[in-house]
Design goal:
Strand order of the largest sheet: 6-9-10-22-21-20-17-11
Bound molecules: aspartic acid
CATH topology of the largest domain: BirA Bifunctional Protein, domain 2
Number of domains: 3
Distance between the termini: 61 Å
CATH superfamily of the largest domain: Bira Bifunctional Protein, Domain 2
Number of helices: 17
CATH class of the largest domain: Alpha Beta
Radius of gyration: 30 Å
Number of strands: 22
């Protein structure tokens, strides 16, 4: 037996027991007469002590130890003279009588501490060392617990976990596919699934009316903090359900996770808002509703007074920052600089200070009277001491810039604490999204999403106005999940493909198997998929999903530890009937 206990286990109750521990050397402190060794494993840290009167071989071995050596130590549990209340084992230490080096270690390239001195790339290259650090360990444990609770809950509701293939053909999520060449079918390729969408629908046709899978998905997209080329979904589908059934079931899952993982409960149902309302009030289809500061459309009020910028704007929107009238020139300039950043794209920002004496001071005083400004303030529900921040321009762009400004103000005012959660459903998404560049409609969710039945006549008159039977689950400004009630009628599906500009042949070629399956008794069905990595990061209080994945890729989609992607040999290329064209 290598060990009798873990390094996180011993307490004062274990006094005088003879124990054996094994683990990694976190730190050695040689104080002359005594040597202290912090021994670490997954479970914690226990202090070992080698005393002056210890066996010579023990003392000699202790003198050889370096950081990250793997050792085994036996001895008696004794009370510490100076206790460490910061760790659970802090009241005791082990007086070592046998010490064995199981394996030496090179000096690690960065410190294995909560706040490591290693840069990002270095830690990625030595991910196996980085994973020894507490923050990553905690993240992976949280992930494990989440997966466990997801399975518990869905199993209790009669869901079956069914695996679907990875080597498939293009799926409809609209990102770029990763492809895999087929050796046995020269010149042909598999695509890795962007999601199991078509398979879960086929499972519904097959009669497995409650399906889920914690499943890897692959999308060849540009990476951001909350994106990885391979990521995990909690993918779910149900038959004989309408939207209400889905929302209720998965609100149940969300509440179960909040309760079992974070000990948080919610009174009543999660709020639901329509996509249109979300856009008008928050400028985003994934609003952070931990705080208010919603948008006020002051277009009508602010036009016609000779201020050209406003007069020529399609939309003028204001947010009210409570108690911020005291913002200095410098603070306001910083906000203006913020909204002018290219990724935000506003041309400028107008402010109105609602002074304590009831007067108003604004950057556009020249054009607007005190009465005008008072009207704006009233429209925004502002009171003395508040600050209005106003952006204007093309509606769509201004809403999104104002959204960024609102979130920035939320951050500045501390209104977005990581340990406070505000979940909601966003419903009634538009079915289609017009793309100016390609002059065609795209499915906002995917082509299998059913339209709201009240809107079906719009197919021929105004397809852009059709509402989808689609919904997103949003928490703290993060889109945690999304899904829809599906089309299960072959004729409606054909209509949808037509609006999306697919010819009959194209639709047949890409999704013929599904259209065909629908001819054999497809039940009404719908589903949802949650971004599992994101949900874990959100619960862990992190912005990036990277640390919730054991072996993630860097921002260029590379695994710098195993050095992938990498070229393959001539022989492999030959076997796959592939030739590499080198770019000039
Ligand atoms: N397959 C969809 C997605 O990955 C989710 C769903 O509609 O269930 O976004």
């Amino acid at each position: 037996m290598y060990r009798t206990h873990t390094c996180g286990e011993l307490r004062i109750d274990n006094l005088n027991q003879n124990v054996t521990l094994a683990g990694w050397v976190q730190k050695v402190r040689n104080l002359g007469a005594m040597t202290f060794i912090d021994l670490r494993d997954r479970y914690g840290i226990t202090q070992l002590v080698v005393e002056e009167h210890s066996d010579t071989t023990v003392r000699e071995t202790a003198a050889k130890l370096g950081r990250e050596y793997v050792i085994q130590a036996s001895g008696k549990v004794i009370q510490r003279s100076s206790k460490n209340s910061k760790i659970p084992t802090g009241e005791i230490e082990v007086a070592v009588d046998t010490l064995r080096i199981l394996n030496a270690s090179q000096i690690p390239p960065f410190t294995i501490e909560d706040n490591s001195d290693g840069g990002d790339e270095l830690r990625m290259k030595y991910r196996f060392l980085d994973l020894r650090r507490n923050p990553l360990k905690k993240a992976l444990i949280l992930r494990h617990q989440m997966a466990h609770e997801v399975r518990n809950f869905l199993d209790s509701k009669g869901f079956l976990e069914i695996e679907t293939p990875y080597l498939i053909k293009s799926t409809p999520e609209g990102a770029r596919d990763f492809v895999v060449p087929s050796r046995m079918n020269a010149g042909e390729f598999y695509a890795l699934p962007q999601s199991p969408q078509t398979f879960k629908q086929l499972l519904m046709v097959a009669g497995y009316d409650r399906y889920f899978q914690i499943v890897r998905c692959f999308r060849d997209e540009d990476l951001r903090a909350d994106r990885q080329p391979e990521f995990t979904q909690i993918d779910c589908e149900m038959s004989f359900v309408d939207r209400e059934d889905i929302l209720t079931t998965f609100e149940g899952l969300a509440k179960h996770l909040f309760r079992s993982i974070l000990g948080k409960t919610f009174e009543g149902d999660f709020p639901r808002i329509t996509w249109h309302e979300a856009m008008a009030k928050y400028g985003s289809d994934k609003p952070d509703i931990r705080f208010g500061m919603t948008f006020n459309d002051i277009t009508k009020l602010a036009q016609g007074k000779g201020f050209g910028v406003f007069d020529s704007a399609e939309y003028i929107g204001a947010i009210c920052a409570e108690g911020c009238a005291g913002y200095t020139r410098k603070q306001l300039d910083a906000l203006t600089e913020f909204v002018k950043k290219p990724q935000i794209g506003a041309k400028g920002m107008v402010y109105v200070r609602c002074e304590a004496d009831g007067s108003y001071k604004s950057s556009v005083d020249k054009f607007y009277s005190q009465e005008d400004l008072a009207q704006w303030a009233a429209a925004c529900g502002a009171k003395a001491g508040d600050l209005l921040l106003i952006l204007s321009g093309v509606r769509k762009n201004t809403l999104s810039a104002l959204c960024e400004l609102r979130l920035e103000m939320g951050n500045r005012l501390g209104l977005r604490p990581h340990d406070q959660f505000a979940p909601l459903w966003v419903i009634d998404f538009p079915l289609l999204e017009w793309d100016d560049e390609t002059q065609r409609f795209y499915a906002m969710h995917h082509p299998f999403t059913s339209p709201n039945s009240d809107d079906s006549e719009l197919f021929d008159t105004d397809p852009g106005k059709i509402r989808a039977n689609a919904y997103d689950f949003v928490v703290n400004g993060v889109e945690v999940g999304g899904g829809s009630i599906r089309i299960f009628d072959a004729e409606l599906q054909e209509k949808m493909f037509k609006v999306l500009g697919f010819s009959k042949e194209e639709a047949e070629k890409q999704f013929g198997f599904l259209i065909n399956a629908f001819k054999y008794g497809a039940p009404p069905h719908g589903g949802i998929a949650f971004g599992f990595d994101r949900w874990c990061a959100l619960f862990g209080g992190a912005d990036s999903i990277r640390d919730y994945i054991a072996f993630p890729k860097n921002n260029s989609g590379r695994d710098v530890m195993i050095e992938s992607p990498s070229p393959i040999s001539e022989a492999q290329l030959e076997e796959l009937s592939l030739e590499i064209k080198t770019k000039e």
